[in-house]
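To whoever is on call:

I kicked off a structure prediction for a single chain this morning and the downstream step that reads the tokens threw a length-mismatch warning. I double-checked the sequence; it's 1452 residues and nothing unusual in it as far as I can see. Pasting both halves so you can look.
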Amino acid sequence: MSLSASCEMGPQKRTLSSLLAGRVVKRPKQEDARRLQEAALQLLEQQLDLRGLLREVGNRDPGNIFSTQNVEQKQAGSEGATAATAGSLLASELRRRASQLGVPTAGLSVKMTLERLMEIAGSEEEDQNRGLLSSSKRVQLCLLLESSRELLSQGALCPKLLWQEYRRDQRLPHLEVVYHLHAYNILTLKYIIESRRTCTHRSVSPLSDQEARLWLVSGMKSLCGWTPPQRDEETKRVQQEVLSTVVGVLVGSGFELSQEPAAADRRASLLCCSVLDDMLFWLLDTVEKSAAVGAELWIEIFDASLCAVSASGETVQRFFTHSLTQTLTYKPRLTVSDAIALQNEWTFAKANRLLTSLFRKLAVVFSVEQLLCHLQRVLETHEVNWKHVLCFLSTLLVYNPCAQLSLRELLSRLLSSAFEGYDLENMITAFLLARQGALEGPAIFPSYSNWFKMSFGGGSGYHASSKKSLVFLLKFLSDLVPFEPSQYLKVHILQPPYVRVKHRSLLMEYISLAKTRLADLKESVEDMGLYEDVSGAGGASLQPQCQAAQDVEKAVSLFESTGRISATVMEASIFRRPYFLAWFLSALLTPRTLPVKADARMSFIEALKKADKIPAAQYSSYVESCQKQRQQNGGAVCLDTNDEPLEVLKIQLQEFTELLVEGNDGELSAQLSRISHTLSAIFPGRPDEPIGRTVIELHTSGPPSPELHVKAVNMILRNFCQCVLDASRANPPNKQSPWASRFVSALLGNTQLLSGLIHGLWDLFHNQAALLSAAHLLGLAAFVVHLHACMSHGPLVRLVPPTLPEPVGVGEALSSALVCSTHANMLFCVRLCVAAVCYGICRGDSLPQQQQQDYILNSLYKKLLYLIPRLSPEARRTPITAGGPIGDHQEESPPGLWISATDANGTWRKTAWHLWRHPAFRQLENTPQYQLSFSEWLAVELRVQRSEDALSDPERQEYQQWACWELYLSRPEEQGGCGGDTRILCSHLLSAIMDQQLSNQNLEKLDHRGSETGTCLPDILSRLQEFVYDMEVTHLSGSSRPSSSDFLLELLCQRCSSSAPPSISGELSQQHTLNAWNRVLLALPAVLLVKVKSEGGRPTLECDTLIEHVNQHQRKACSPAGLLSCHLTLHLLRGVVGASARCGRPGEEVNKAWSQISLRCPLLLVSTAHWWERVSPVLSSLWRRLCDGEPLPEQLQLLADCQNWACSLEKGLPSAPVPTAGALLLAASLHRAWGGRGHDDQGFTAALNVLQPERSTQHRQVLVFLLFLCVQDHLTSLLYPQERSRQGAAELCSNLLLALVDSADWLLVFQSNERGVYQPIAMVTSDEWTRLMPWAFYSLLLQQSAELLQRAALCPGFLGTAVLCYVGLLQLRLEGRVPPPTAEPHQMEPSRILSRAKQFLLRAIPQTPPTALSSSRLRRLESQCADLDPEVAAALSMHLDPHSLSPEMDFL
């Protein structure tokens, strides 16, 4: 009976420790001590079982008094004492029993330990489906091994004997048992491996290498494939420790170098290597079968930190090098031709994640250069698995951004070596590696087309040194043709290697072979795009129409950037004419609404037409279609709208966020590669990198993008915002990894995706600002910052409709969406800009200044310079100057600035105030591109809607005066200010006001909200008035600077002057400029428009500048023609009268000024007579105020007399004497009196009787001028039939013709030269209006009676005038400047006028005497008619020059 069994018979089960302790506590009497001791020893000798004793010693029973003391602080010491006491007791008992049995103590302890070990571990059959021991057995085993360690320390246990006894029955322990034996340093795994052949016991067979290999491999496979129970973290930890310990020992034994290894050591090393290789091959087989059971756990074992516990760093490197070599050379079944054909499927995004994870683990202890050098050695010395090699390269490129440069150097070495020794292996290696890098996209490695062009496209290429090198290259490319994917063949055809002219035939042989291969692949060579996607992405080829659209976009972009048609297009027009005509020109000549100003596409089309590359019929059809096209239809998207990619993208973005939170930078790069691959499916047709800068069109009010694209863009932006928040919780931007830059860079390789992102951001900023939260603003601001930083040399953006003069960068284009017209817009704009600039300053902290500026958009910075002082008056007290803001306190810490920007409880005002005073913010103001100029400030201020402004009217006035007087007036011009010059400030104000009015139409297209309420134009006009008055007062005080009148009119002259050739668009632009100027002019004091100068010490009026201004500019913008508006006429006259008050004799100065106007400014004279009824009371009142008591000046009184005289004639009153005025003034007065009346008016008949032309030359001149004015009315009625007030002008003209037909003077009205006394006619209307006089001539003439026409034909000079008017009529017809058709019954259609004019002229020529025209005049008329109408020219020659007839006809 055992001790434990005997104890169970008592009332309470007690252990040996309890019994011993109980005896200690009981303290027996002295006389009983000897007797009790003898009884106890007798009992132990009779009943003791060693296995039970070992179980009792190892038991940590809760009832043990040594471990259950009431005082907790004594527990650890009690347990240690108990273990030591129990071990000593157990060792003593083992020695005593061994001496009794006559056996060695070590043998007895081994037998006892082994029996207990087998009892705990159990048989293999029991646990064959279990990888690890249960928790209870693990505790028992640990207690047993702890006791065994005590026995070992006291020399009572032999590890060697223990292993021999364990192997006696050919047993092999579980790996966990081996791990614990190893961990307790009882029996190490290294000893087990090295002692497998040293066993000398005859009954124990040695452990062979094969057995050991199978035992370890099967154990590790079983352990890897076993899944612990859920939530059992302890078992998972033990599983990891068992594997890492075993691998650490195997690595240490297998790859540790020794000076002179013994044979046994070499055998052990080979065994360890074979075990690790077997596990690696098992892993690779699992990956190949796409199974993940156990593989992920084994990959985690490839951790340098885990392996380094049992092995040195150099040993770990040797192990990783060996494993990488084994992986790259595992099952090299694929040939080079297979690799060429299947390479597109071996990208990082498509590779098995387990394989890429393995490569990443193996590469972590090496530099990129070491890895590529090892890869080169493996390729040179082994047969490789090309799939593994290329996947390894992709993984290296994705996880290591610096690998691109190293790979380029490797490719250069390979190509150099290949051409030096004409080595095909190096050649194919270089091509495969370059293509693999290109497959990962432009953010990872340059496209294959660019690499091929850089390597072989120039005269310095590797192949250009000799003909042999060229033949070697072309032979190599020809050998690849049967296996090449089509995209690489297209690269070689579109961008062939450089070949000298004498060797051109060699290249053409290869191109012919490549085209034949493309035909076999059923890909039409003729339909191949000029700039086709040849990046090697392996996607489906685009349809020809989609490819042609991309070709057109790129060709136009290149033309816009270089000003020349690209060589690719010119070559295609010759060598690829079918594609050029059928696809390229069809896509280019798509009908659309042509802009007024030629854009890049129009200019490109014109350049092709001049080069004779567009057939005339096709061009004519295009022009006709454009005239009919009113709205451009959006093109179809060549995209499948399946929603499945969105789900994949959503999951990948979520995983990216999780990896960012975990801080796993390497996996972030890999995940971005997968995201980029998914996006290429949603946004297909990624074009190859363009030569030059692509232009993306941003349709601000166009049709929405496809729903799939909108969803993808929103998903990307939401995820980026979340990532910014998650990353910012841990670190400020300058302490974060470059994840954001990599994220944005991964999106830039796809132009279609980039366009979608720009459209999405524009829509959010411009239309959905109210829906964005603070978190959205922070994330979107960071996105825009990185987008700007990554695209400093990327595509430009053109807004459609064009609200900006030329394409701009992405940052500036998105900034234009941030309008500052209302209070709500300003708040959103300042919050977004504060977030963006704060982020940019923090992100660029500690970087060089140039790199810092990459993260700060100057357009957003300028908006803050505008908005912060406007919305925060305290900022005006600390303005930014060249030396920074003026203030005592300065913010210094970028992290502090970022904390303020991300503070949920903070306000934008607080953050903006911190930012305003930040040193980095101040320093930017010293950089020219970050300075907000006065003109830029004015442009933004003029767009503010007064009714929705954040400031009240007084506050706005105070702010504007601060900006003008304090901020910009004194600021140097090179910093965007005015340099203290009021004239410069006024010129900026005038230009801004005019620009704002001219651009109103475009601004309303961009922001329809701007047209609902008034802008700040009245406020800026008030500022202009203030400064103009200040400038005039300064001049009056004796300044030598030019007067304000000269300054204002010179400014307009500069705005209207243009060196461009005359055109309709130029005329319209000039008219818009003059109309805008006139609106500004009317807001300025009239007296400032007339200069007062001093002559002989007496002030006099000088009207030369004013007269020149009216003659040169105002006459071009009159509507109707030949007549200034009433407001402008009155304003100019008020200026003359008002300025005269500053002279000593006002009346005399007015008379002198008006005399000059009458002679030199007929337009102002006619306009004054026309509006006299309205301007007279104002001028009279003004004169009385200025010169109280003085009579009205004579010239003004003469105007009144002319008006009274004309009115008396109009009313049929007795005729008063004709005033002593000029003929033009009298005619203008009569025209005003009879305007619109018909020929039956008795007063008009009476007036004609009074002004009979034969009576007086003055009468004739008055009637001729009156005829001119009436012809102007008639021409207006032809061009604008809706003008009913001028419908009677034709009748007045007929009556005047009847009175003047016998005089040649009336013909001078229709001549553009030789007018003599009637020269003022040319100064009344514009030159363009004068060119339309031939229509008026024939329109009037053809309505007259035959008698009148016969009389007119006899008039001297009539035929010359008629021929010239007919020639002018033909030229107008050719230019398309004809009056519109009219529904009026008394007016002829323009086409009938032309035909009847010719008939009339052909009839009039025979009736004209030959002597009517001089010989030189006749020759000029003939030459002018010869090209336009040869029939009329022949008639002139035949009937008026009989000497031109042939001799035969003269004889006849």
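Update from on-call: the warning came from a stale cache, not from the record. Cleared it. Sanity check on the structure: Residues 838 and 898 are 6 Å apart (CA to CA).
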